[in-house]
Amino acid sequence: MALGLVGAVVGGVAGHYAGHHGLLGAAAGCVIGQHEAKKHAREQAERVLKGALDAGYTFLDTAAVYGLGHNERLVGEVLKDRRDEFVLASKCGMTDGETRDLNGSPARLKRTCDESLARLGVEVIDLYYLHRWDKRVPIEDSVGALADLVQAGKIKSIGLSEVSAPTLRKAHAVHQIAALQTEYSLFSREIEGSILPACRELGVSFVAYSPLGRGFLTGRIRSAGELDEADFRRTSPRFAGDNFTTNWRIVQVVEQVAVETGATPAQIALAWLLAQSGDIVPIPGTRRGERVEENVGGDAVELSTSQLDRLNAIEPPVGDRYADMTPLNR
Length: 330
Ligand SMILES: NC(=O)c1ccc[n+]([C@@H]2O[C@H](COP(=O)([O-])OP(=O)(O)OC[C@H]3O[C@@H](n4cnc5c(N)ncnc54)[C@H](OP(=O)(O)O)[C@@H]3O)[C@@H](O)[C@H]2O)c1
Known about the structure:
Layout: H1 6-12, E1 22-24, H2 35-55, E2 59-61, H3 70-78, E3 87-92, H4 106-120, E4 125-130, H5 139-151, E5 155-161, H6 165-174, E6 177-183, H7 195-202, E7 205-209, H8 241-261, H9 265-276, E8 280-282, H10 289-296, H11 305-312
Parallel strand pairs: 1-2, 2-3, 3-4, 4-5, 5-6, 6-7, 7-8
NADP nicotinamide-adenine-dinucleotide phosphate binds near residues 162 and 291.
């Protein structure tokens, strides 16, 4: 699959991010510790971010809530001289700048956009998502605030995350929605029912977050118990106890196809997503430079019809994605 040219895609076909390789803004920023540990984390994050651009990623995903601003600052500082090489995407609506706080009021979104611009060190953000719909605020009002930000030249396009097809349609009636970001992988295929068809109908790019099933599909995690105490996945029902064991059959099929093709399981998971259609932008996350290279290699893997059939036939996992599903819009 050809890589999109950042300038051409953003400036040319508004609202369409097909063909991009995505990556998060390096999670290493959250590490807190001694001076040396911080220095190491910073160096590691710099390697990931610069290595991603060198490897051909053209789409970086961050959010105000990631490390409560730390992640945006990191992207801004590390890539300030390479700003024209990638689509810069960030998100609002889940923090007041100091704590986690779901709030989609127009005033909050406008204020936190200014704070994100300052942290990122840019005058405009290419793609700005409402991270979650705050159901206390009509979606039209939150998207209306984002439309004002487009008008003011602070953001170029609007995205949503984790909304249903009806909510997407309501939002799209207020202003063109460029992209919808929601979890999608062989571990999470719920969006195929009504959400993906709505995106296609409206010309909304689909950005697939957690495309490696939060690492599960890579086969490197053998039990939730081996994860750090603070690791989010310890709270995810599908990583818990018997569910983890039951869901392992998904990894087994992915690993089998990986052996047949000479690719890694991570590359198979990404190749499957890219084979679904050219309008899907996977954004695999990693803190390790070597995995940046490995993951972009998923683009070159060609799956045969029979391999796609076997991957498509995998039964859905057991267990919800989040312990608390209420912030999602289903
Ligand atoms: N909109 C939303 O609400 C939302 C929610 C979640 C995530 N996101 C976005 O989506 C991005 C990706 O999602 P994610 O990080 O949750 O899940 P992911 O990309 O599915 O998986 C990331 C995990 O897989 C591991 N990994 C990455 N490449 C690997 C490889 N080649 N082999 C083995 N393990 C590998 C990473 O560990 P290492 O770091 O050790 O490599 C990390 O633990 C996030 O960074 C964020 O930008 C958005």
